[in-house]
Design brief:
Four copies of one chain form a homotetramer. The first copy, chain A, has about 350 residues and is of the alpha/beta class. In chain A, about 35% of the residues lie in helices and about 15% in strands. The first copy, chain A, has ten helices and 13 strands. In chain A, helix 9 links the parallel strand 12 and strand 13. Chain A is elongated. The two termini of chain A are about 55 Å apart. Chains in contact: A-B, A-C, A-D, B-C, B-D, C-D. At the A-D interface, helix 7 and helix 9 of A face helix 7 and helix 9 of D.
Chain lengths: ~350, ~350, ~350, ~350
Amino acid sequence: MLPEGFFSTTNLPTYVRVRGEWKLPRDPRMDSALVLDGDGVPRVVEGRYVRAGQPVAMGMAEDGSEGIFVHATGLLGDWEAGPEGEFKFMSSEVSREKPTDYGEMARLLVDERERGGHFIWVVGPAVLHSRGRDTLAWFVREGYVGVLFGGNAVAVHDIESATLGTTLGMNNRGVPVEGGHAFHMRAINRVRAAGSIPAAVERGIIQDGIMHALVTSGVPYVLAGSIRDDGPLPDTLTDAVRCQEVMKEHTRRATGVIMIATALHSIATGNMLPSYAWNEETGEIRPITIICVDSSEFVVSKLKDRGTHQAFGVITNAQDFLHVLRFYVEQEAAARQTAGAA
Amino acid sequence: MLPEGFFSTTNLPTYVRVRGEWKLPRDPRMDSALVLDGDGVPRVVEGRYVRAGQPVAMGMAEDGSEGIFVHATGLLGDWEAGPEGEFKFMSSEVSREKPTDYGEMARLLVDERERGGHFIWVVGPAVLHSRGRDTLAWFVREGYVGVLFGGNAVAVHDIESATLGTTLGMNNRGVPVEGGHAFHMRAINRVRAAGSIPAAVERGIIQDGIMHALVTSGVPYVLAGSIRDDGPLPDTLTDAVRCQEVMKEHTRRATGVIMIATALHSIATGNMLPSYAWNEETGEIRPITIICVDSSEFVVSKLKDRGTHQAFGVITNAQDFLHVLRFYVEQEAAARQTAGAA
Amino acid sequence: MLPEGFFSTTNLPTYVRVRGEWKLPRDPRMDSALVLDGDGVPRVVEGRYVRAGQPVAMGMAEDGSEGIFVHATGLLGDWEAGPEGEFKFMSSEVSREKPTDYGEMARLLVDERERGGHFIWVVGPAVLHSRGRDTLAWFVREGYVGVLFGGNAVAVHDIESATLGTTLGMNNRGVPVEGGHAFHMRAINRVRAAGSIPAAVERGIIQDGIMHALVTSGVPYVLAGSIRDDGPLPDTLTDAVRCQEVMKEHTRRATGVIMIATALHSIATGNMLPSYAWNEETGEIRPITIICVDSSEFVVSKLKDRGTHQAFGVITNAQDFLHVLRFYVEQEAAARQTAGAA
Amino acid sequence: MLPEGFFSTTNLPTYVRVRGEWKLPRDPRMDSALVLDGDGVPRVVEGRYVRAGQPVAMGMAEDGSEGIFVHATGLLGDWEAGPEGEFKFMSSEVSREKPTDYGEMARLLVDERERGGHFIWVVGPAVLHSRGRDTLAWFVREGYVGVLFGGNAVAVHDIESATLGTTLGMNNRGVPVEGGHAFHMRAINRVRAAGSIPAAVERGIIQDGIMHALVTSGVPYVLAGSIRDDGPLPDTLTDAVRCQEVMKEHTRRATGVIMIATALHSIATGNMLPSYAWNEETGEIRPITIICVDSSEFVVSKLKDRGTHQAFGVITNAQDFLHVLRFYVEQEAAARQTAGAA
């Protein structure tokens, strides 16, 4: 085996000081050790081929201070070594391979609720299936949602679930039911008959779910129309420019944003959002945190590529995200209550 | 608005009986109503354009029994109407848009533990990050894991975390630490020094995590080698044919399988697995449930496309999956204990 | 080695007739041979372990006619064996692992041009980058496009390219240029100054690209507005319901559709499309081919899951698709010209 | 409309000099203009709301030199403004939305062939379907391939195609054929009977395809074994450590690498590759170009996240990539021949 503290190589040009001279080693590759050949030239060798008695280079520093210099930016430009000019693993901006700090997100949500911030939730229809719908309604009722941005479909399938028990014609185990392809049209028809979503809630047509929670908790919502819409619902804003105006009334006073499983609405919201909240009177400036949840890295990258650089990506399933987030938020809120009572 | 019970159209050839004659409607499309034109020919019209007083076709049946026949399979072949020969939404086999029945998976795991089944867990390195690692170790210690299949990397990064606190050089908040690119090599080196993973556990070099839980709980594991491996660890089986033989000793007596975030190991296991467990003595045959968890539909489809048709896909993040599954398994196990005590 | 014509196993329950009795083999798995154990029970063994002299089951038929019966549907339901009730590989509906028949698509496009069909092209902004834009303009000029459906962004970035040489601020090598984030706003401003896209073409402000080809070839286009839009361009229809009406004037007479790299516009178009073209006068019914091109399987599955079952998926990059399709269309058109001249 | 040369905003803190004072504007957002409110404070307004006569800020510079300073890095840290400390669109490292410079790749391949470089092609089975297989064989025969790295499956399905006309049991139109699930096993069996792939080529068992081209052109190949393998073929190296040794004999003298549609083999190769080629005698150092082709960004990011930062990502379908690349390489080679003849 190698001695503790052996130097572990990178794939970059690496200069090793041997008897006063800086030398490039033979057979360069990463994740290996440096041994000295008989002619005084270092060689890169995988640990398993190093034999007892061979001289092995020691050290952790890559800046030459301990006799080994890794030339991270010289040959191939800055990107060779990652954006920080150092050889690193996991330097990508967004990856499903990175851990998610739910504790920090929970603290942010509870903080914002305490300080009366305006937290925008931007959601796609994927939040609706089974437990996701109940969990999001919980967040609304508990005061974590300042405004909800979504499309016609979010409200349609939420109301389909409230009135007929399916989403997109599937039951809560994911199985399409007979005649289910028409259920969302029947739900839309009932809301049209009532006149609006609040009217349908008042008349008892809608008795649970996200729209019910929004209406009964007095939380505003914006349903943006699109060419994909069936119906649409009477509450949907079909003109894109008018809808942007209504959304902007919220984005201009946003203090945080969470985007879940929608490219269209997330990018639209990102376009309108400043990267900071500015209090003109006090002059205070605070960054606006943007959490973007999607099942692939692509939507988050797309959002960043259109200028919303501060978005923080969480690559997961919408329903599982909501489940785990609620778990941590409940813990955080309980901990604060205990601390406050003490 | 439309009357309750209106017929909602599909995009398929649809015959409507009008005064004894079967007629194809004008302007066919889905999600719309059927009205009668002045010349006795039906027309497909979106609900919002139907005017009060217009005759609207009523009914739910699509088989002609109520005067409307949807020709699901005639023109375009079976696939036009989805695999069941009926117009349906959400008929895809695997989709992130489908709900996940964690309750059912929890019942299966608790059942298998009770009956002493041999449940195979096949895992990729994505399970390791932050909470995922702890949760998987919990499943091992609680007796839900019959055997663990993984690669060299799963063990390496688990032991990197146990010895140096990082996975792939990231801390548990996903930030690369200085010198972190070498940490997995240092972890490997320590295990090589100890001689094996069990020896490293015994000497206190490895004090927590998945490998620790396996060794201390006496649960077997198979670490398959691959050309991507660093090290490899002394416990890794580097010969693919020999490794298949060891894996097959487990697949031949498997009663259930869960695959998380690995294409290589999942497909390898699928290749060896029968679709059923057969007890030669009693003659009993039972299907083997295969749960395949991945962040995209592709791996699940690939697995099915290579013959493992019975795989059930769950499209989500590995760590969140484990978190939510543990939540449901704890509930299920507690409920049974309560029921057993009553 | 095994004899030519050996029976190759599946993972399904398989009955082998041995001396008049049907027997289940031991150690079932796929891709293996059947040998006879000493006690007259068959055993599944990988080819590499079969020894010279061992009796090996021969045959290709799985229906029992040659002594081997694969029970494809009995135990686990229809899906175990794939939709056709037979053990198959590659039975998924949409997969990047399937070959693409460009020759057939080319024949369809040339056929439709010859018979004067109304072919709808539905495109997202991904078609614009470098060669994609030129190639799509070629299809327009050559008469393969009946109408183009897209969003404000398609036109904006096409005109950004015509006027300032970038798309989304990148040059044609994919490198962001200085100040490039504002270029699409400058392009929009010039069109607003001209009054409309056709006016900007007439005044020479737009001299190449897709919108130029559409205007100068007299091919209609529909630019659907959305909440993501900058500007918007004067030609963009900002009201979703009004836009659906204009799109439907085209879908009702569509004879074929090609959708490239857009979920929103593809699903919107799918919603309106019948699965067949019906000539009310002659009574003739023909299926409408729908080709859906995207870089992942998800959009195609989503389209099918919302009822557009007849969509045929091509999983590739938008620009490469257009390049290869043009290559085949040119060959097909040339071959017909040669044949016609002979 | 706005005047040509208007300042187009970002979402970052932006200071505007008004009568000698630097002021933050109201209602910040990107893609808009700056107008002056009556009280001398600037306001961000979308172009469509600017009225004739309103004073609009002019300028392109964001460094304060023309009176407008965009504070790209101050508030939120470096990443807010993208890696270059400037507000940019499309700053992601890998994206399917970026154009691909096939001309440059073609020049590189032709250059390397001319100078006798050692170009490594690393390929997954996705290259095999229909045209991809023929095109890759063409590259081999034309001298563009120094060595081919792949797995057992690449060779198996290539030989399945040569001997039985299918890949993974599909015909070249992507349709599974009857009994096709066994065809790859029959192909393997024939090679085992012959003794090796070269022997099977010599005996005329394999008459076309990639393996045929490699054998008849004398180009070396490395088939790495894995636990997924059927057979395996006699030519497959089943021991991972031994296989790494054989691969390293090629990576140590590599001058360029192209990786197509394989995570396992690409990351394995990346692990062994230096980022530069060093001629110990002349002291010359040249960067090694790595082109990584995959249908999603994930594999490329994963490769970079494991230290192969210099990989250049091309997000497309393997077969279409090969088709388009051949098109450009043929043009480049012909152009050089013409130039050489002149």
